[in-house]
Structures are given as structure tokens and as C-alpha cells.
């Protein structure tokens, strides 16, 4: 059975393919023939201690792989690009995360889908909205475009 994955891509360190945006484009190519939609690459401020801006995008990938197999595939691509595990929120040549899966929810050791923080992250929701704005988030039933609007909306000051 073929399902669809929304994969978030990010880079804030040049690598063997060039600039962070070049790394994101090369990672999209590495995902192969199953890619069915690609957002624009956006530049965003870093989270945490990193000082380098990120290049971020989202792709839709069709695959017969179950979520754990897809995660292994993504981690193999990260390693091939030179990604090494290290400091959380640090600079990275490429980061690939499963954000949503058309199968709904998945929970196993080391993997939770939907991604725990995606619904509060503008750098994920803006590109995700471009390729899957009508996708309904498991649990809330809200469409991605509504989640993006909620993150964009100004918050009242305390």
C-alpha cells in the first residue's frame, strides 16, 4: 500500500552540494522518484543556540515504506550528506523529519508522527501549506492552512 509523507527539510551549514539551499535541493533529489510536491525554499532565523539562518522546505513523498522504514531512509540520507549527531539545535548540513503521514498517527520507539512540534513552527507550516494546505492534522482535524494562520496570528501581550 502506498502512503504519503510530508517531510520537512532544513539546512544551515554549507556542505558538499554548496549553500544550505543547495543542500536542501540535493536532499529533495536524493528522496527520489516518490517526490510528488516540493515547496519553495524559505530562509528562516535559527531556533536555539545556532547563529546561522536556515534554508527550509517541505516535500510530499509517496512510498510503500512504513514510518520506521521511512525514518531509517531519511537518516541514511542525512548520514550520506555528512550529518553527524551532536548538539541539539546546532548547525547541521541537512535535517529531514517526518511531519505528517497519510496513515494518520504513528508511535514507536524513536518516532512519533505527526512530528511533536510542527504545528507551532512557522518554518515548517509555511512550506507545508504550499504543498498540503488542505491536509487535516490527525487529532485536531484542522487543515494545515488553518494551523499556519494560527501561528502567523499576533499573540496578545500579557
UniProtKB/TrEMBL annotation:
Pathway membership, UniProt: Cofactor biosynthesis; tetrahydrofolate biosynthesis; 2-amino-4-hydroxy-6-hydroxymethyl-7,8-dihydropteridine diphosphate from 7,8-dihydroneopterin triphosphate: step 4/4
Q: Which UniProt keywords apply?
A: ATP-binding, Folate biosynthesis, Kinase, Nucleotide-binding, Transferase
Instruction: Give the superkingdom in one word.
Output: Bacteria
Biological process, per Gene Ontology:
folic acid biosynthetic process; tetrahydrofolate biosynthetic process
Provide a Gene Ontology MF annotation, just one: 2-amino-4-hydroxy-6-hydroxymethyldihydropteridine diphosphokinase activity
Q: What class of enzyme is it?
A: transferase
Of which family is this protein a member? Belongs to the HPPK family.
- Name by which UniProt lists this protein: 2-amino-4-hydroxy-6-hydroxymethyldihydropteridine pyrophosphokinase
Q: Which organism is it from?
A: Sphingomonas carotinifaciens
Q: What is the lineage of its organism?
A: Bacteria, Pseudomonadati, Pseudomonadota, Alphaproteobacteria, Sphingomonadales
